[in-house]
Fold this protein.
Amino acid sequence: MADEDPAAPGLLASTLLAAAEAQARTRPSPASSGLNVIDDLALYGGFRYGEVTSIAGASGSGKTLFTFQAIASHLLSSEKGEVAFVDTTGSFSPWRLRNVLASRLESQCRSSEYHQMGCAFKSTQPSSAASDEQLKEQTNRLLDRVKVMRVFDLAGVIEALEEVGQMWEKRDERLRNIRDMHLEDGQKVVYDSEDSLSVGGVEINVHHEQLTKGTSNAHDDQVGMFIVDTITNVVSSMVSRSQVQGQALLTSFMRSLRHLTYRRHICSILTNTAVGLNPSSNPKYPRRAQDNVSIFAATVGRPALGKMFTHLVDTSIFLSEIPKLRLDAEMAYGEGDAAGGKKISVLEVLKDRFNTQEGRWSTFEITAEVLLTTSL
């Protein structure tokens, strides 16, 4: 009988902690959702880099708007960072993204002016607002860093991910060539700080690991955000033809996505649709408690693609609507007019790999199709 392979040696908890702390130090701050109350109450700062997040909800619930807000946060926080947007439905709207970016730029400008004028708590409008021409120019520069990839099936999504990975590999090769070139010249390498070094009197803004290992977690000129809008239809079409093959391809893709996301500190967001939005009224098929994934009894529906997909992501978010006030609930579920009550939108974290966000939620409203506002 052949000898079995020995088990992998164990690791000390202190070693794992040190590795986790090193990862946390090099990981960018979370990308804001566009609304501070959601960042603070539900997301612990926003959409985290190095993790895969799924946003599920019915049509018109705000899934794409949240991805656009995340894109704006990423572009505004990184001078050269890029975004890969995989469009599987052909519904990507450059005008809507432009409006989101313009709105965030205007808000950033006003905030900066308030701070400079020492009137951060005044409601008066600053007099030196950016001109429309300057705003348009800045918005176009941001749009230049968003690469939209139109795909039609899961194979196309996989190819898009591979292309992003190849971009990073080419960058690694370029950094290795820079390192080898300077080392061959025998020039003295003097490290000034963690973020810059001087070679022969010339300062190069790269990390120490970029020259010694050829890898980097910085997003200065690479894709730092990967978005698929939506993952549902390309997976559903594959599963409908062959469930086994479709599930296998999805699992393989998610494994590759998580590996690239974690290694490169990319913020990956996948949008997903909702199912079960119209439960049966037949008394033979009553709605069961286990069918409700939300902590709110009034919430109907659940993320598509089943429970397996939920376990393939780091954070699963669900967008839904519930009655705003008690009177609205009585109108919706009592004898009143079900269509007459007001509703508010809810962002709820259904699952979190580290159990730090699960069950957290916040309400919001969508105004002017591009803005997220606090629901009062």
Observations:
- The first strand starts at residue 51 and ends at 57.
- The two ends are 71 Å apart (CA to CA).
